[in-house]
Design a protein that fits this description.
alpha/beta; FAD/NAD(P)-binding domain; 2 domains; 5-stranded parallel β-sheet; 30% helix; globular; binds flavin-adenine dinucleotide
């Protein structure tokens, strides 16, 4: 009997599932990918694309080509609801799709839920395709602006820091006019990083003339700027949301077990703790047994064990356990073809770190290029 494997989202784990499926298809299994976009962004190179160092195709993976190689079908739609008891999902096209195994790798979106007006105003970093379209428009506007545009990035973690530095570099090198402010609710820039790394970045921000508004919680956004919990405001022409990670609301609404943040609860085999025919990975899933930050590194590392366990589950074999690494190397770019490497308490900075990162990223992308 044919069994149906449904992959929801073309995230960092599912590209590896498709790549491995292409090398050895499983007899009697049909694979369907639900992804609204043909191209999925590789997050490690996204700041380089924003900065103008890469072209679109260099940091996007062609899901249609991967699907074709894997004998899979892509349906150009989002999942909008899940009924895990009936083993079916509802798509943004209104279709109901049934599955025997479902894997969810749909990422997350910025956590703007508590900010008044954020649903209408500002530009979220995800979905990436929408963000990139808006960024292009803003680059053109900065070139022709009669006065410097005031731009704010909300999010003081690694993604927000990399993005604002990339934006500032791009606009400055193209001769555009803009002033940037990074806004974060933690008292420090990059609160998860060691003090030496925070100091390195503080020096880069000062040298590049980027303002900091730290230790303040954004409560609202208006057409002319941001409002903070202490009653103060920041005037700006545009704001970018790169703060935190929020789950898709339909996960919790489906009744499947979710963690306190609303992310799909998975066990050490990457399987849902409440429905054994549902798997999850990447930002969308929470490893309650071994919590890790929402980071592409873990989504990438989960790809091979997810692939193995989907196959084992379809065959009725016992699943294997995945143990996430305790600590990951972070290569955080500064927008100007330099980067800072961080491993535990150790860090270093320079153009050579960027070249190292560039080599790693290009080698990663080459794995998913289907000739
Ligand atoms: C600017 C920036 C830079 C970053 N740099 C790094 C870095 O250098 N290293 C690192 O480790 N992490 C980095 N991150 C974090 C990283 O982006 C995420 O942790 C990573 O993308 C998570 O991968 P994922 O597979 O969970 O989801 P994603 O990569 O977000 O992929 C999810 C996919 O699912 C699709 N999708 C979404 N919703 C649905 C739906 N309902 N139905 C179907 N499909 C859907 C999306 O279109 C997307 O293609 C960065 C993040 C940002 C914003």
């Amino acid at each position: 009997m044919t069994r149906r494997l449904l992959l929801a989202g073309g995230g960092h784990s599912h590209i590896e599932v498709l790549r491995r499926w292409a090398l050895a298809p499983e007899p009697g299994v049909t694979v369907t990918l639900l992804s609204p976009d043909r191209w999925t962004a590789y997050s490690g190179m996204l700041p380089g694309l924003i900065a103008g160092h890469y072209r679109h195709h260099e940091c996007h993976i062609d899901l249609d080509a991967l699907c074709a190689a894997a004998g899979a079908t892509r349906i150009a739609a989002m999942v909008t609801a899940l009924n895990p008891t009936a083993q079916e999902v509802v798509t943004s096209r209104g279709d109901i799709i049934r599955y025997d195994r479902l894997a969810i790798d749909i990422g997350s979106t910025p956590a703007t839920g508590g900010i008044a007006g954020a649903g209408r105003l500002g530009i979220p970093i995800k979905p990436v395709a929408d963000f990139l379209a808006q960024w292009q428009i803003l680059c053109s506007a900065a070139l022709n602006a009669p006065r410097p545009l005031e731009l704010a990035v909300v999010g003081g973690g690694a993604a927000g820091v990399e993005t604002i530095l990339a934006m500032q570099h791009r606009i400055a090198t193209e001769g555009g006019r803009a002033r940037f402010t990074l806004v974060g609710d933690a008292a420090q820039l990059l609160p998860a990083q060691p003090p030496a790394v925070r100091q390195r970045f503080a020096a880069v921000f000062a040298a590049r003339g980027i303002g900091l508004r730290l230790g303040q919680t954004v409560t609202g956004v208006r057409a002319d700027g941001l409002e903070f919990a202490d009653g103060s405001t920041l005037a700006c022409d545009e704001v970018f949301w790169i703060n935190g990670a929020a789950p898709a609301p339909w996960l919790r609404a489906s009744g499947i077990h979710c963690d306190a943040g609303g992310f799909l609860s998975i066990d050490a085999t990457l399987r849902s703790v409440s429905y054994p025919d549902v798997f999850g990975s990447g930002d969308a899933a929470g490893m309650g047994h071994a919590p890790r930050p929402k980071s592409g590194v873990y989504a990438v590392r989960q790809g091979p064990p997810l692939h193995d366990n989907l196959r084992r589950s379809l065959r009725g074999e016992p699943l294997s356990e995945y143990r996430p690494q305790r600590r990951a190397l972070a290569l955080i770019s500064t927008g100007d073809r330099q980067a800072i490497a961080v491993y535990g308490p150790l860090s270093c900075h320079g153009a050579w770190v960027w070249r190292w990162k560039d080599n790693i990223d290009r080698a990663f992308m080459a794995r998913y290029r289907v000739s």
